Amino acid sequence: MKSLRLALSLLILLESSLARPFGVVSSSRTTGMRVFGSPPSRRTSPTSIFPLRGGAIPVDEEDFHMPPQISAQDMAIALRWTGEVNRRLQEGTRYEEVSTRLVPPLHDDMRGGESAPAPSPLTLFHATSPRPNGNGSSRWGPDLEAYVENICRQLNLPPDVSAELSLALMYLDRASSAETPRSNGVPPVPYLQPRTVHRVVLAALLLAVHTTQGWPLPVLMERVESLGVRPDQLAQILQWMHGALGDPGYFIADYSIQAWRSVLAETSRLRDLLVDEEKGIPAPPLKAPTPVVETRKAATTAVAAPTTPEKDGEEDVEPQVLQKP
């Protein structure tokens, strides 16, 4: 009878723990909890995701998939490569962006008068003080590998192998994607570029550590005060990135983790292609932008596009010529 009572008590305890609302996490901080993967009862759902927070329901070994552990060097390689490719893509599309400034704003009383001007491309993620001697991301901040290692030291993460580093890459990829479902109306964070990479990766790492270890964000913000980001700006950056994660929030699906394993496996190939930033990064060939066609009859065969006034910390925009076909 005593053994039966003990068995029933254990069964009731197990059922009560599994009956917790899905996605609700404990407010207490726990470490070492296996929180990656999908609960077996929800494996058939395409949105089968597991809460990545301390206090989540543990799962069996076969149902548990940790994000791949990468080093600070691997993360820096992925950041530098992605940032440089995005920078070159933006430079290629600037041709069309400059031409759109020639079009006067529309006036329509039925729609509220003139159209609102386009918002400034500079955000809280953009660095404002360029360095006189530096190229790529080194112009806007410290060396990426040393920067990531410094963040790891401040957050007590091992810089050689850490799952939080790969989780941070997943977060910043989702937060900057226009395909992420966001019913909250928060816009995506700026794309990863040499000018934004430092603050983007800092916010992503803080959210990753907050997710896996359960530390409150104010505590983590105090640990990285030496990095020079104002606390009020860092709080807004974290709020923006958290909202930009969209409807899934901190959740990571099993299939996303498996897909990222193959993506991060390419860092070994990028390490062979990556060279010193002072010599440039051999980005893959990009398709030339399509020339903008001038349709006005009074236009000449070649119209010089005016340059925009230089903003603080931005490079000059060379005048470009719009050719008629």
Name of the CATH first level of the domain at 72-101 and 120-273 = Mainly Alpha
- Strand segment count: 6
How much β-strand is present in the residues? under 5%
- Number of separate helices: 9
Name the helix and strand elements from N-terminus to C-terminus, one letter apiece. HEHEEHHHHHEHHEE
Describe the main β-sheet briefly: 2 strands, antiparallel
> What name is given to the CATH topology of the domain at 72-101 and 120-273?
Cyclin A, domain 1
| Structural shape | globular
Cα end-to-end separation: 92 Å
Radius of gyration: 24 Å
Helix content: 25-40%
What structural class should be given to the helix and strand makeup?
A: mainly alpha
Stretches with pLDDT under 50, minimum 5 residues: 1-64, 98-120, 275-279, 281-325
CATH architecture of the domain at 72-101 and 120-273: Orthogonal Bundle
- The spatial strand order of the largest sheet comes to 1-4
Round the mean pLDDT to the nearest integer and report it. Answer: 62
Can you walk me through this structure?
By secondary structure, this protein is mostly helical. It has a domain at 72-101 and 120-273: Cyclin A, domain 1 (Orthogonal Bundle). Helices cover 39% and strands 4% of the residues. The chain contains nine helices and six strands; from the N terminus they run H-E-H-E-E-H-H-H-H-H-E-H-H-E-E. It has helices at 2-18, 72-100, 144-154, 163-176, 197-213, 217-223, 231-244, 254-264, 267-273; strands spanning 49-50, 107-108, 113-114, 252-253, 302-304, 321-323. The strands form three sheets. Strands 1-4 form a two-stranded antiparallel sheet. It is globular, with a radius of gyration of 24 Å. 26% of the residues are buried. Residues 1-64, 98-120, 275-279 and 281-325 have low confidence and may be disordered. This is Cyclin N-terminal domain-containing protein. Residues 280-325 are annotated as: Disordered. Residues 298-308 have a biased composition (Low complexity). It comes from Amphora coffeiformis. Residues 1-19 form the signal peptide.
